[in-house]
Design brief:
- Helix content is 75%, strand content 0%.
- It has 73 residues and is mainly α.
- The chain has one domain.
- It contains four helices and no strands.
- The longest helix has 30 residues.
- The two termini are 20 Å apart.
Length: 73
């Protein structure tokens, strides 16, 4: 679960090393948002992707907080 949150922040490494390729092999959600906004001029799609990323991060954070809370009791 922690790796899911980490992957939501990995953008520069993918851009510099592989540019999301070959094909879409190393593309993640932040890189798809970048492609939608900058390369395709799809600002609405990028905004929707950003909302999905925030909702996904919140869901993972809730699961992590519950798991850590159970381990502390």
């Amino acid at each position: 679960l922690i790796q899911t949150i980490f992957l939501l922040g990995v953008y520069a490494e993918i851009l510099v090393t592989t540019n999301g390729g070959p094909g879409y092999a190393s593309t993640n959600l932040p890189f798809l948002i970048y492609r939608a906004a900058r390369l395709s001029n799809d600002v609405g799609g990028a905004a929707a992707g950003g909302i999905v990323a925030v909702v996904l991060a919140n869901i993972v954070a809730i699961f992590l907080m519950r798991a850590v809370g159970k381990n502390l009791d």
